[in-house]
Amino acid sequence: MRPVFLCILFCALSQGCDQPSATQATATKPRVVATTTMIGDLVRQIGGEDVALTVIMPAGVDPHSFKPSTADMAEVARADLVFYNGLHLEGKMVELLEQKLGGRAFAITRDMPRGKLLAWAEGESGAYDPHVWFDPTLWVDAAKLIGAELAKKDPAKAPDYHNRTAAAVEALMLLDGEVRGKLAMIPAERRVLITSHDAFSYFGRAYDIDVRGLQGISTETQAGLTNITAAVDHIVAKKIPAIFVESSVPHSTIERVVADCKARGVEVTIGGELYSDAMGSPGERPGYAVDTYAGMMRYNVDLLVNGLR
Ligand SMILES: [Zn+2]
Questions:
Q1: Over 60: is that where the pLDDT of 11 sits?
Q2: Residue 304: exposed, middle, or buried by beta-carbon count in 10 A (0-12, 13-18, 19+)?
Q3: Ligand 1 centroid – CA 196 distance (Å)
Q4: In angstroms, rounded to a whole number, what is the distance separating the alpha carbons of residues 136 and 219?
Q5: Helix H segments across 53-135?
Q6: Which of 34, 125, 176, 304 could tie 40 with a disulfide, CB 3.0–4.6 Å?
């Protein structure tokens, strides 16, 4: 046993000796911080090995209520570039991201045509729904912005960033077609998505699904009784077979709707847990890479098709 132990110790020590060169390589790479897991996924695809990436929000965490830790703040302070969603998704970080980072922070929604954005609330102008990633064709704009800003920061690698942006855009367009094809299996009268908070309006617009969230755009607002009653009425009237909880939002509101439907003699099931504002952890859903944007979309779409078809 002893020689093996010594070998492991020696290997560990010699790897330790190699570390300065690894650190040196990291030091020359742009330090990039992404706020959400979805933005982190895009930066990983486009930045590849050429950036040192830190994603500050963990899997399954709600960005509306996320408060950065001291370590997160230090990471942000050290970063060369910070990519964030904007449109007030990162509710507790708005001041930091929009006022304190002096040109190092970029909202991935910056270049999205305002005419393509949905209003935060009906009839409200000037404030937009931040859940843009659920329309892959809009997410293309986020990819392009990330690619362009990385190329500006690190011009020597610009052709690589450009090529990887083009590949990411192509993959998003293919995913859009795949999602559209799968959702076509749900009959028109059942194309209704009822879920905890209003994260899926862009998804609904892109794929012709009637979306109703019970808590509004931000999880910071609670579902009112009127919303719950309206959802129950809608489910009963339309005979909707399934409604959905979200991985980053407590399930209580949706469970209440199920119970109220039951009290009115209508069985509606919880069709499963959708990924809304955060991706999952590796291996969390067998058969789906829910720790990637594409995997999260595929998982959601299969759940919807199985629940509503
Ligand atoms: Zn949200």
A1: no
A2: buried
A3: 10
A4: 23
A5: 70-78, 94-99
A6: 34
> Whole-structure pTM over 0.70, yes or no?
yes
Q: What is the CA(253)–ligand 1 centre distance, in A?
A: 15
Q: Which two tokens stand for residue 299?
A: 């998982």
Amino acid at 13: L
pLDDT band at 171 (very low <50, low <70, confident <90, very high): very high
Tell me how far apart the alpha carbons of residues 149 and 299 are, in angstroms, rounded to a whole number: 31
pLDDT at 25: 54
Cα(158)–Cα(149) distance, rounded to whole angstroms? 10
Which strand (E) or helix (H) includes residue 106?
A: strand 105-107
211 Cα–ligand 1 center, Å: 14
| Domains present along the chain, CATH in parentheses | 23-179 (3.40.50.1980), 185-308 (3.40.50.1980)
